[in-house]
């Protein structure tokens, strides 16, 4: 027993003596060099592609903004659809590259976790063995005999003392603790990357759906107009007439609501309690019908514009202006195409306000969903009455808005189901945005 203990003690002391020159027990690299370099090169390649695609998308957005400012013709509308299609296709490529890059990062993290697990196991075994040896030495009194023995005096004159061994073991325990911390960090990073990957895959599925809708939109437009400008202008006139009738239907119904709105139930004007629902803010139409109404929170007489329009390319992300609950979603085009909000989402917030997001091309959320500020609700589009891709954003006093059904005079025998509000409940969005 003593002979075995002496051998282990000498082995541990020799490790302590070499600790000044090299790392104790195991090398410090986490991933094999060749694999690490290969992963880095692939990640860098995808990063470059991502930067290139983002630059390409930015250029398309500039072209889209220029096109939408031009006079509305069949040619300009088709060009807008084609540019939107290019943007969605580029977004698909961008998302695929982000997915591949994230996959590689997860691979690197997985190898990191595996190697760190192995390190922890080896270090734990070595520390336990060394501790057992120290215990044996102290219990047997061998340490005293070793340091005083004639045969070993020259060897132990240059070796570490028992206190040095304890210090080395303490350092190893600290190193083991550090490895555990690194392992926890790597696992946390991997979980974050997996969540990012899942979100990217959802985005990819959404974008593919948007691309399909974009194709159908162009095919439908060309079929309806037979690729003739005169037919397109006639179509626009029909849409304007449908919109006017819809607004009349809505106004008549809302005038009968008489919902109570307590001014004390809504936030103070200028409080900035909402965030912009889009990344790039371009207001193309303000609230109400006078300059005064755009500067005051509750000026709305049942006529004019009941929200603000934000010019944004089709397929852009639309986000919740504040946390809350999705009270409803819908598509008025199923009742009467081209007349109203198209695809819409209504969110009720915790501060007496509710917000409407309309003319969407794709809705991501469902009724009853809880959302946080900035969560994705859907993607911008051109549904309902819309002469170009944009977001219609309305703010209500929650007490005065409900989702109701009412008859359409434009499309006889059909009913709209959508948010309706007492005229007192419409608020100027600019009163609550940053």
Describe the protein's topology:
Layout (H helix, E strand, L loop, with lengths): L1 H17 L14 H36 L5 H67 L1 H7 L4 H6 L3 H64 L3 H26 L28 E3 L22 E4 L5 E3 L4 E8 L11 E7 L3 E11 L6 E2 L4 E5 L9 E8 L3 E7 L7 E7 L4 E2 L7
Antiparallel strand pairs: 1-2, 2-9, 3-8, 4-5, 4-7, 5-6, 6-8, 6-9, 9-12, 10-11
Helix pairs in contact: 1-3, 2-3, 3-6
Helix content: 40-55%
Biggest sheet features: 10 strands, antiparallel
Query: What low-confidence regions span 5 or more consecutive residues with pLDDT below 50?
Result: 1-34, 154-160, 292-302
Classify the beta-strand content into a percent band: 15-25%
Write down the domain tally: 2
**What's the quaternary structure here?**
single chain
- Total number of beta strands: 12
The secondary structure category is: alpha+beta
**H-E string:** HHHHHHHEEEEEEEEEEEE
Number of helices: 7
Taken from the alpha-carbon principal axes, the silhouette is elongated
Structure explained in plain terms:
The chain is α+β, with helices and mostly antiparallel strands and 434 residues long. It has two domains: 2-212, no CATH class; 264-431, Glucose Permease (Domain IIA) (Distorted Sandwich), CATH 2.70.70.10. The protein has seven helices and twelve strands. The chain has helices at 2-18, 33-68, 74-140, 142-148, 153-158, 162-225, 229-254, and strands at residues 283-285, 308-311, 317-319, 324-331, 343-349, 353-363, 370-371, 376-380, 390-397, 401-407, 415-421, 426-427. Strands 1, 2, 3, 4, 5, 6, 7, 8, 9 and 12 form a ten-stranded antiparallel sheet that branches. The protein has a two-stranded antiparallel sheet with strand order 10-11. A hairpin with a 7-residue loop joins strand 10 (401-407) and strand 11. The longest helix is centred in the first third of the chain and has 67 residues, at 74-140. Mean pLDDT is 80; it is low at 1-34, 154-160 and 292-302.
């Amino acid at each position: 027993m003593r002979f075995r203990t002496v051998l282990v003690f000498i082995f541990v002391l020799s490790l302590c003596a070499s600790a000044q020159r090299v790392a104790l027990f195991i090398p410090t690299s986490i991933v094999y060099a060749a694999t690490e370099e290969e992963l880095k090169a692939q990640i860098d390649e995808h990063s470059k592609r991502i930067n290139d695609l983002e630059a390409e998308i930015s250029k398309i957005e500039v072209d889209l903004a220029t096109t939408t400012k031009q006079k509305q013709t069949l040619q300009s509308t088709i060009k807008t659809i084609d540019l939107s299609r290019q943007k969605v296709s580029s977004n698909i490529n961008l998302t695929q590259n982000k997915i591949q890059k994230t996959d590689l990062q997860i691979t690197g993290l997985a190898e990191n976790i595996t190697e760190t697990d192995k390190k922890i196991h080896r270090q734990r075994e070595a520390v336990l063995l060394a501790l057992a040896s120290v215990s044996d030495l102290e219990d047997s009194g061998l340490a005293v005999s070793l340091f005083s023995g004639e045969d070993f005096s020259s060897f132990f004159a240059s070796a570490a003392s028992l206190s040095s061994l304890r210090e080395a073991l303490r350092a190893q325990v600290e190193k083991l603790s550090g490895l555990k911390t690194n392992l926890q960090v790597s696992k946390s990073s991997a979980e974050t990357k997996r969540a990012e990957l899942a979100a990217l895959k959802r985005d990819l599925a959404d974008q593919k759906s948007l691309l399909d809708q974009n194709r159908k939109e162009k095919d439908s437009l060309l079929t309806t107009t037979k690729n003739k400008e005169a037919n397109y202008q006639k179509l626009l006139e029909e849409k304007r007439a449908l919109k006017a009738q819809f607004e009349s239907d809505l106004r008549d119904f809302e005038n009968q609501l008489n919902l109570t709105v307590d001014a004390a139930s809504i936030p103070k004007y200028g409080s900035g309690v909402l965030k912009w629902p889009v990344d790039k803010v371009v207001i193309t139409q303000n609230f109400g019908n006078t300059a005064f109404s755009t500067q005051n929170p509750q000026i709305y007489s049942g006529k004019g514009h009941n929200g603000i329009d934000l010019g944004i390319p089709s397929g852009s992300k639309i986000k919740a202006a504040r946390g809350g609950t999705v009270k409803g979603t819908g598509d008025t085009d199923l009742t009467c195409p081209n007349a109203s909000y198209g695809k819409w989402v209504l969110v009720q917030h915790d501060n007496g306000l509710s917000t409407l997001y309309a003319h969407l091309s794709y809705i991501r959320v469902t009724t009853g969903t809880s959302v946080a500020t900035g969560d994705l609700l859907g993607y911008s589009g051109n549904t309902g009455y819309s002469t170009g891709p944009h977001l219609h954003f309305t703010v209500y006093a929650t007490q005065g808005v409900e989702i109701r059904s009412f008859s359409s005079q434009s499309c006889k025998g059909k009913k709209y189901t959508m948010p309706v509000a007492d005229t007192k409940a419409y608020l100027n969005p600019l009163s609550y945005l940053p």
